[in-house]
Design a protein that fits this description.
23% strand; alpha+beta
Amino acid sequence: MQDELNVRGIVLSATQLKEYDKRLVILTEQLGKITVFANGARRQNSRFTAVAQSFTMGKYQLRPGRQAYTLVGAELEKTFLELSMDMEDYASASYCTELVDYFTREGVGGRDELNLLYLAFTTLMEHRLPASVVRATFAIKLLHIEGEIVPPEHPPVARYILSQPIQRTFQFQPKEGGEQDLVRLAKKELDRVLDYPLRSEEILKSLL
């Protein structure tokens, strides 16, 4: 039997399997994006119920398998399920997780992406910035982390975001016209990089 692993991460998606199980995609600091099977997570009073949901952050104890991991223990650190109570917040959080899912992969540590996702969720919950600004800022900073964007080519507000450490990414207020500049830039850069449209973006279009 392989040794069990302990990782810290955020659940990007949770899919129902069989009658009581779930398939999780978790972004972790140590292992990058991984697939985890949470057996019995849908049973009443399961110890995995709280930690096996999208938009939750925790410490996960895993048993490695051939192509995926099995969840054997977990400790909930923070839940962002409140984002599900507002359609735009939910779609915005889904937008962020879709982008992270696109760029990350197993075997490549995801510390920066995880920290950025945590901050985006926190900012959405606190409503310190308009959701459109959070989405655009997240996209621009993530593209920078992934080496897909060059700061000098862009408007002042974007250069400011790109020049800041990750923990200060959302610590600003856009000046007049700055919000539109960010949204346009994020769309332009994502159109250049992505191979397919985001599902959450279609939902946002229908909402807004």
